[in-house]
Amino acid sequence: MSLQAAPISQTSPAPWWADAVIYQIYPRSFADGNADGMGDLPGVTARLPYLHNLGVDAVWLSPFYVSPQADAGYDVADYRQVDPRFGTLQDFDTMLAEARAHNLKIIVDLVPNHTSDEHTWFQDAVAAPVGSPERDRYIFRDGSGDNGDVPPNNWQSIFGGNAWTRLPDGQWYLHLFDTKQPDLNWNNAEVRAEMVSILRFWLDRGVHGFRIDVAHGLVKADGLPDWAAQTKMVEGSERRRPNPEDTILTPPYFDQPGVHDIYREWNKVLSEYDGDRMLVAEAWVEPMEQLFQYVRPDEMQQAFNFDFLLAGWDARQIAESIEESLEQAGRVGAPSTWVLSNHDTVRHSTRFGLQDPTRFPKGINATDEQPNEELGRTRGRAATLLMLALPGSAYLYQGDELGLPEHTTLPDHLRQDPAFFRTNGVERGRDGSRVPLPWEADAPGFGFGDYDDAGSTPGATPWLPQPDTFGDYAADRQVGMSGSTYELCRRALDYRRRNSLGQGSLTWERQHNPESGVVAFQNGPVLVVANMGIEPVKLPAALKVEVASSSDAVGNGALKPNNTVWLTL
Ligand code: GLC
């Protein structure tokens, strides 16, 4: 069986995003250009050579817009301005120009489901009377019960607690996330027009694409009917693989058919611009067939593959996910994407070091099971190497290239994620994956605030503390060091590009045996073998090791457990 990932409906050459490796920057925690303890755009600009050297094609930046930071910037108060914490519009333009000079494309994050409660629209809505056009931009409703003090329906926030907050005048407004993130009303024409205008604002500045936050949430079912269950964006601890007979219940606020009209309109807007601009959906939608509806030819270009992310360190689940992703992608003529970590998940190097490496905890604190760091690092590298050999487009989260683990002992009093507070700490939250990057092993704050490499700017304490072990992972201990995770990724990316693996096709090979923990496939010139089992796997003798996930991955002609190799003739 051969599975193709390149978009079949596109003419050649394929658009840049079809096989791009895209690096996610979480601006607060990437590099701190003004040494105030929080990352910023000048910090990003200064580190672009590092990304160019790594060999990624594009960068996706999480939000840097004006925001009270109630949800680390996913609560936008002004969509057309850079928050002073992160710099200025001029800094953005400089960054974009420098990125171009380094042959890197820039994707920005668009948050269309909700604004901040400090956005002028919401402030106007609060000040305006019930039933006013200002209120119609959001989802205001009267409550039920004798005094209207019962929320309009039973929806719960994704972050925990009620999804409705009441204003002093008695009306309630909907927020699928935090109280400070009121949901927009996508039945309102002004809302639709404004978001298109924001798209154009950034397209005109020259961005190459947008990551669409909560892309499946914009349209709510008519009448806002009650919903029986609480919904999480990341389901339970296991990836759900329903039987075809099972009905998947879709909440009335996710994946409603009407969302697709919005993306059809946006597709047209993008097509007015040159350079294959793109949209990538953050949509926690299942089954996969439903997810791939977002990347039909007249909608978005990509959607994050969370099924793959949830598959864990498990050959059977990974193999199933790869196969189904490529099949579904082929049906709609879009590339599949691959992702292992992001700013909302526990880092994969840490998840794969847990006793059950398919577990998906919502954050980890000091009282929880601690990962085996060494095992997690080894498996993390192997998983990254497997992912980079797959046809399609792959996403790296900042620090993946360093093999960075989660901070698993962050004290509660330093946590900032609203999910931690809204669940009273039941969910530890996402802060552990958002810790500032280590750049220099021996510098204060591991060089996070020392962007000029001159050693002259020690920088304020990073906004979240880094664990002591981060020094071992620091970029200056890895760049140019043979055997480091960074050099492993660099080599893999270089080989991937030169051999167009991202535009290749996948064929399961003789060694492929998921039941025994082995995933093995051919893509172009390379035979990829990943060993997630417990026994060494015999490798074909005639082949040469092109890239290996660790220096001792292969011994006695066999691949050791917890490793991946790329082999060629
Ligand atoms: C997305 C973001 C997440 C944010 C949420 C609300 O899931 O990735 O970080 O909290 O949307 O905007």
Chart the SSEs and their pairings.
Elements: E1 2-4, E2 21-25, H1 27-30, H2 41-54, E3 58-61, E4 65-66, E5 78-82, H3 89-101, E6 105-110, H4 120-127, H5 133-136, E7 140-141, E8 164-166, E9 172-174, H6 189-205, E10 209-212, H7 259-271, E11 278-281, H8 288-291, E12 302-303, H9 306-310, H10 315-332, E13 337-339, H11 348-351, H12 373-388, E14 393-397, H13 418-422, H14 470-473, H15 485-498, E15 505-508, E16 518-523, E17 526-531, E18 537-538, E19 544-548, E20 554-555, E21 558-559, E22 563-568
Parallel strand pairs: 2-3, 2-14, 3-6, 6-10, 10-11, 11-12, 13-14
Antiparallel strand pairs: 1-15, 4-5, 7-9, 8-9, 15-16, 16-17, 17-22, 18-21, 19-22, 20-21
Bound molecules: alpha-D-glucopyranose.
Write a structural description.
It is a single chain. The protein is of the alpha/beta class and 569 residues long. The protein has 3 domains: 2-115 and 189-490, TIM Barrel; 120-174, Oligo-1,6-glucosidase, domain 2, CATH 3.90.400.10; 506-568, Immunoglobulin-like, CATH 2.60.40. The protein is 25% helix and 15% strand. It has helices at 27-30, 41-54, 89-101, 120-127, 133-136, 189-205, 259-271, 288-291, 306-310, 315-332, 348-351, 373-388, 418-422, 470-473, 485-498, and strands spanning 2-4, 21-25, 58-61, 65-66, 78-82, 105-110, 140-141, 164-166, 172-174, 209-212, 278-281, 302-303, 337-339, 393-397, 505-508, 518-523, 526-531, 537-538, 544-548, 554-555, 558-559, 563-568. Strands 12-11-10-6-3-2-14-13 form an 8-stranded parallel sheet. Helix 2 (41-54) packs parallel to helix 3 (89-101), helix 6 packs parallel to helix 7 and helix 12 (373-388) runs parallel beside helix 15 (485-498). The protein is globular and about 75 Å long. The chain starts with a strand and ends with a strand. Alpha-D-glucopyranose binds at residues 71, 74, 111, 177, 213-214, 233, 282, 343-344.
